[in-house]
UniProtKB/TrEMBL annotation:
Gene that this polypeptide is encoded by: nirD
Stored Pfam families: Rieske_2 (PF13806)
Protein name: Ferredoxin subunit of nitrite reductase
Gene Ontology MF terms: 2 iron, 2 sulfur cluster binding; metal ion binding
Xref: SUPFAM superfamilies: ISP domain
Domain of life of the organism encoding this protein: Bacteria
Keywords tagged on the record: 2Fe-2S, Iron, Iron-sulfur, Metal-binding, Nitrate assimilation, Oxidoreductase
Amino acid sequence: MNGNMLDNERVYQVCHLNELVSGIGRCFRIGKIKIALFKTRSGKIWAVEGKCPHQGGPIAEALYDEKTFICPLHAYPFSFETGNCTISEKFRIKVYPAFVKNQQIFIKIPMASNNDSLT
């Protein structure tokens, strides 16, 4: 996965759009960062940190709808838009901007917060 620099973020091509199935999350690794990708029934692509901040659960295995996903270990629900846990202010997960171009899924990772994590 190659990354291109844009200001303070890096853009990574993750996979082809056809590699994601609505209703089934997938985990990808970019350097040392695990990313969970989701495709909703409406076709929206979401990218979040691949492990739950509560106890490290595998977020790609989460149940989800258009705006919320639920950690498979303890059923903590999180917002795709904000990364906030909707039942506890103690937990938040990183959310990464995702977009599709030429049937390829790309995500943006801020460099300021992840310099050490990518290598």
